[in-house]
């Protein structure tokens, strides 16, 4: 039952990812992207990583995708605004990506990943309580440095978005 | 409460490897084939997410919380990256009225 659900979610994720790449209209791309993130949230829940599922749901599906959708509607993009690459270079790009996929699968096919030890297995590591303890005990300095990163990103975004004095005022 | 989740018992970890590889390659194909800067940006997010899922899968199968903490930091950095990147794209659009990457080829020379 759960196994079938895993394969269903995998199918939905790959389908939506192909939709992101293939759809002509950027708004449809963003909607497919939201579907991808929704399926990935389902994967996190299946893996019992509930904290990451919540963060993925709020940060990715909530914040980042709204930002993308907002920018796309703000820039007023239509289907005909994007000129397409020549067929030959598209074909070459698809071949290159497909060959990378084949090489990776061939390399990873026989890898031995059976390392789950039922004796010491702890299914509760993905809970907020456990991750919070680890985060504030072992990763306190990176956590604080992330706040500096966010401050820099916020200042950078505001500075980039501001209009320069000599800039044309047509948009 | 400490029973092993069913997906970890029934699904081999290799399937997560294949799935993440497929998602990553779809992202690469998107970056290589599209010309709209925003779509390329979204394909980069796709690749980031495939790596996130693989890290989470390894972390859950080994019941080691460090991998999930790492995914949390990747998500934080990705949020900052999206804010700055979209600000740059909006600024480019204001100046050249397009987000086509073939117009923005001055850095190539």
UniProtKB/TrEMBL annotation, chain A:
**NAD: is it a keyword of this entry?**
yes
Q: What taxonomic classification does the UniProt entry list for its organism?
A: Bacteria, Pseudomonadati, Bacteroidota, Cytophagia, Cytophagales
- Pfam families (UniProt xref): Oxidored_q3
Task: Show the InterPro entries listed in the entry.
Answer: NADH_UbQ/plastoQ_OxRdtase_su6, Nuo/plastoQ_OxRdtase_6_NuoJ
**Topology in membrane:** Multi-pass membrane protein
Compartment(s) where it occurs, according to its Swiss-Prot or TrEMBL record: Cell membrane
According to the UniProt entry, its GO molecular function terms are:
NADH dehydrogenase (ubiquinone) activity; quinone binding
Give its E.C. classification number. Answer: 7.1.1.-
For this UniProt record, give its keywords in alphabetical order, as a comma-separated list.
Cell membrane, Membrane, NAD, Quinone, Transmembrane, Transmembrane helix
Q: Which organism is it from?
A: Rufibacter glacialis
Its catalytic activity? a quinone + NADH + 5 H(+)(in) = a quinol + NAD(+) + 4 H(+)(out)
Q: What is this protein called?
A: NADH-quinone oxidoreductase subunit J
Q: Which family does it belong to?
A: Belongs to the complex I subunit 6 family.
UniProtKB/TrEMBL annotation, chain B:
GO BP annotation list = ATP synthesis coupled electron transport
Q: Does the keyword Transport apply?
A: yes
Q: What class of enzyme is it?
A: translocase
* Keyword rRNA processing assigned: no
Q: How does it sit in the membrane?
A: Multi-pass membrane protein
This enzyme's EC code(s):
7.1.1.-
The Gene Ontology CC terms held by the record are: NADH dehydrogenase complex; plasma membrane
Q: Could you describe the subunit structure of this protein?
A: NDH-1 is composed of 14 different subunits. Subunits NuoA, H, J, K, L, M, N constitute the membrane sector of the complex.
PANTHER family linked to this entry: NADH DEHYDROGENASE SUBUNIT 4L-RELATED, NADH-UBIQUINONE OXIDOREDUCTASE SUBUNIT ND4L
Question: What is the name listed in the Swiss-Prot or TrEMBL entry for this protein?
Answer: NADH-quinone oxidoreductase subunit K
Organism of derivation: Rufibacter glacialis
